[in-house]
């Protein structure tokens, strides 16, 4: 069972995905891409391995390399994230991919790693940018974040049921 979580920027998709993984109490692997903030302003994004806790700077204002908006992307950091997804396929009970977005897809191997996770037979909770939903909507049940608590309760119930099997 794969779950695709999407919604407008700032709607709480990543926060919800992390809350769900924490409440499940299962061994979660994959990636999270929290913001890097300085003096209250977003200046970049981390990419974190959910199994090890290790993280790298994935994108930041002023970085050289491919750009998305004002952020330069470190493709080596995305490679680190790809390895985290592959590790999750081998070692985790549930796989988190937060997120599938324009930055992550600049690395040619990221899409394949996500595809491998979707096809792994393990539950995947993937945060997908709304603009990319058309490409990923057939990979799992899609939840558009609107009513935060309702969506959270529904996803938790699905994943808890799967973990009992």
Please write out the topology:
Blueprint: E1 2-6, H1 13-24, E2 28-32, E3 35-38, E4 41-49, E5 55-61, E6 67-68, E7 71-73, H2 75-91, E8 94-100, H3 110-118, E9 124-128, H4 133-136, E10 141-144, H5 148-164
Parallel strand pairs: 1-9, 1-10, 2-8, 8-9
Antiparallel strand pairs: 2-4, 3-4, 4-5, 5-7, 6-7
Features:
165 residues; alpha/beta; Rossmann fold; 10-stranded mixed sheet; 5 helices; 31% strand
Q: Which blocks of ≥5 consecutive residues have pLDDT under 50?
A: none
CATH topology label of the domain at 2-33 and 83-164: Rossmann fold
Give the biggest beta sheet: 10 strands, mixed
CATH C-level class of the domain at 2-33 and 83-164 is Alpha Beta
Total count of helical runs of at least 4 residues: 5
Q: β content, as a range?
A: 25-35%
Instruction: State the shape.
Output: globular
Measured distance between first and last alpha carbons = 12 Å
CATH superfamily of the domain at 2-33 and 83-164: P-loop containing nucleotide triphosphate hydrolases
The average pLDDT value, as a whole number, equals 93
CATH architecture name of the domain at 2-33 and 83-164: 3-Layer(aba) Sandwich
Secondary-structure element series: EHEEEEEEHEHEHEH
Give the C-alpha Rg.
Answer: 15 Å
**Class based on secondary structure composition and strand pairing:** alpha/beta
């Amino acid at each position: 069972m794969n779950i695709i979580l999407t919604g407008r920027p700032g709607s709480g998709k990543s926060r919800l995905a992390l809350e769900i993984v924490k409440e499940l109490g299962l061994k979660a692997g994959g990636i999270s891409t929290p913001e890097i903030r300085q003096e209250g302003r977003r200046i970049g994004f981390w990419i974190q391995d959910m199994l090890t806790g290790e993280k790298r700077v994935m994108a930041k204002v002023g970085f050289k390399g491919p750009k998305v908006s004002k952020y330069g992307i470190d493709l080596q950091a995305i490679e680190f994230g790809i390895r985290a997804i592959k590790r999750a396929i081998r070692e985790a009970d549930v796989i988190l991919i937060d997120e599938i977005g324009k930055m992550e897809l600049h690395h040619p191997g990221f899409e394949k790693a996500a595809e491998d996770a979707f096809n792994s037979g393990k539950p995947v909770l993937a945060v997908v940018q709304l603009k990319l939903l058309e490409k990923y909507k057939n990979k799992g049940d899609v939840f558009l974040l609107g009513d935060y608590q309702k969506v959270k309760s529904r996803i938790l119930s699905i994943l808890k049921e799967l973990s009992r099997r």
